[in-house]
From TrEMBL, chain A:
Pfam families: GST_C, GST_N. This is glutathione transferase. Gene3D superfamilies: 1.20.1050.10, Glutaredoxin. It is an enzyme of class 2 (transferase). It comes from Favolaschia claudopus. Belongs to the GST superfamily.
Automatic annotation (TrEMBL), chain B:
The lineage of its organism: Eukaryota, Fungi, Dikarya, Basidiomycota, Agaricomycotina. Its EC number is 2.5.1.18. Signal peptide: none annotated. GO terms for biological process: glutathione metabolic process. GO terms for cellular component: cytoplasm. Keywords: Transferase. It is an enzyme of class 2 (transferase). PANTHER family: GLUTATHIONE S-TRANSFERASE RHO. The keyword Transferase applies. It catalyses: RX + glutathione = an S-substituted glutathione + a halide anion + H(+). GO terms for molecular function: glutathione binding; glutathione transferase activity. It comes from Favolaschia claudopus. This is glutathione transferase.
Length: 221, 230
């Protein structure tokens, strides 16, 4: 049984999301870096595997899968004992609701602002736009008001225990804070104490702390 | 003990997506129209059901759920025993379904929705269309549909050879593209055209278009015809 191979970028945003979940589930994996700088992800060979020319994808003993949330769901389903996707019907429905909230109410603005803020922080030579960052952070602020209402009644987005729906907010949930300071950012405002509480819990998890300097092959836990 | 669907009675967006799933599964429901024009969805009363102030929302005998994709997934699981199997259960088949569902939201929805907002919604409110913005989203959609053309040349539907929610999630916004002046769903290539014709010809979608989104009971013949063959 070959070790799971994660094809992506050491520092790449979505590769980090998958690595965080692999770590949560204690799954050994090998990081195989895709030479994005030289367009490896757009080569005909690569497109046969990931036809949209995006990273990451996984090779799980020959089973190929792309799209980070699909990858994370697949691994979580393989190891149900961790409870990252509840199975009881109503708990599962509330998980799906929370997962859809992340997808439709958080990611669109958080990824647009977060990607640019991450580019700036890493010093990559790509263009960024103050207005795109500002507009998307403004949208995000409003969405997080609804998060505050949800998280004032329960500990995590799908209920009292953490699920993939919470973890999917990484890494962009961290990158959007680069526009603020440690004591005051969009995820950590005095006006939204429950969001701040939930955010701090997320970034304290060993699975997030393990790859602060980038994703690395992990063979033991 | 009936489901109540709250939303917009139009064949587009999240409410229509849920209505199509209800029809696929032959599930009777009560429809309650939310007065979007007068901002009912932003009022505190509605926000108790949907904290983001969006439609649709579902009330299943007191169990309230929002986000159209979550509602559809819940219905597919709860009524797994009737109508077509909309989410596979085997581990790898399910993973490929999740991959296709993720592709819908990452690579189709943003551009289709942007095209709808720019090319259909703006004229509806007598606002001028930004032709450059409209061209940009249609162009991005076109690039991604080139990939769909490849995928659908190898398999019948997006997750494999069976129709799943991943295909269904495209219908309610995809059908608004023509109104925005974009014929990509039929002009991109033979595979996308074949797939698009199949998913939009399903009796469940036709019942949404022809009978509309409204309270339906089992005895309603037009609704019964919505239970498609798997």
């Amino acid at each position: 049984m070959a070790i799971l191979k994660l094809h992506g970028g050491k520092q790449a945003t979505c590769t980090r999301r998958v690595a965080t979940v692999l770590h949560e589930l204690q799954v050994p994996f090998e990081l195989i870096e895709v030479d994005v700088a030289n367009g490896a992800h757009k080569s005909p060979e690569y497109l046969k595997i990931q036809p949209f020319g995006q990273i990451p994808y996984i090779d799980d003993d020959g089973f190929l899968l792309y799209e980070t949330r699909a990858i994370c769901r697949y691994i979580a389903a393989k190891y149900p004992e961790y409870g990252l996707i509840p199975t009881e019907p109503k708990a599962n429905a509330l998980f799906e609701q929370a997962a859809s909230v992340e997808l439709t109410n958080f990611d669109p603005s958080a990824s647009k602002a977060g990607l640019q803020l991450w580019i700036r922080k890493m010093g990559y030579p790509f263009p960024t736009d103050d207005k795109i960052i500002a507009d998307n952070l403004e949208t995000l602020e409003k969405k997080l008001d609804a998060y505050e209402a949800i998280l004032s009644k329960q500990r995590y987005l799908a209920g009292e225990t953490i699920t993939l729906a919470d973890i999917f907010h990484l890494p962009y949930g961290v990158f959007v804070t680069y526009a603020g300071s440690e004591s005051d950012s969009v995820m950590n405002r005095a006006s939204r104490p429950n969001v701040a509480r939930w955010y701090k819990q997320l970034i304290s998890r060993p699975s997030w702390l393990a790859y602060l300097d980038g994703v690395t092959t992990t063979t033991a836990y | 003990m009936v489901l109540t669907l709250y939303g917009l009675a139009a064949p587009l967006g999240g409410t229509a997506t849920v209505a199509m799933t209800l029809a696929e599964k032959g599930i009777p429901y009560t429809f309650v129209s939310v007065d979007l024009q007068h901002g009912e969805h932003k009022q505190p009363e509605f926000r108790k059901k949907q904290p983001f102030g969006l439609v649709p929302a579902l009330d299943d005998d007191g169990f309230v759920l929002y986000e159209s994709r979550a509602i559809c997934r819940y219905l597919a699981e709860k009524y797994a025993g009737q109508g077509p199997t909309l989410i596979p259960t085997e581990l790898k088949a399910k993973a490929l379904f999740e991959q296709a569902a993720a592709v819908e939201f990452a690579n189709f929805e943003p551009h289709a929705r942007a095209a709808y907002n720019e090319g259909v919604l703006k004229p509806h409110f007598n606002l001028p269309i930004d032709a450059s913005a409209l061209n940009t989203c249609i162009s991005k959609l076109s690039d991604n549909l080139d990939v769909y053309e490849v995928i659908l040349g190898k398999q019948r539907f997006l997750a494999g050879d069976e129709f799943t929610l991943a295909d269904l999630f495209h219908v309610a916004f995809g059908t608004t593209l023509a109104e925005a002046g974009c014929d990509l769903m039929t002009s991109k290539g033979p595979n996308v055209k074949r797939w698009w014709k199949e998913v939009t010809s399903r009796p469940a979608w036709l019942s949404v278009l022809n009978s509309g989104i409204k309270t339906t009971m089992c005895e309603d013949d037009a609704f019964k015809s919505g239970v498609s063959e798997p």
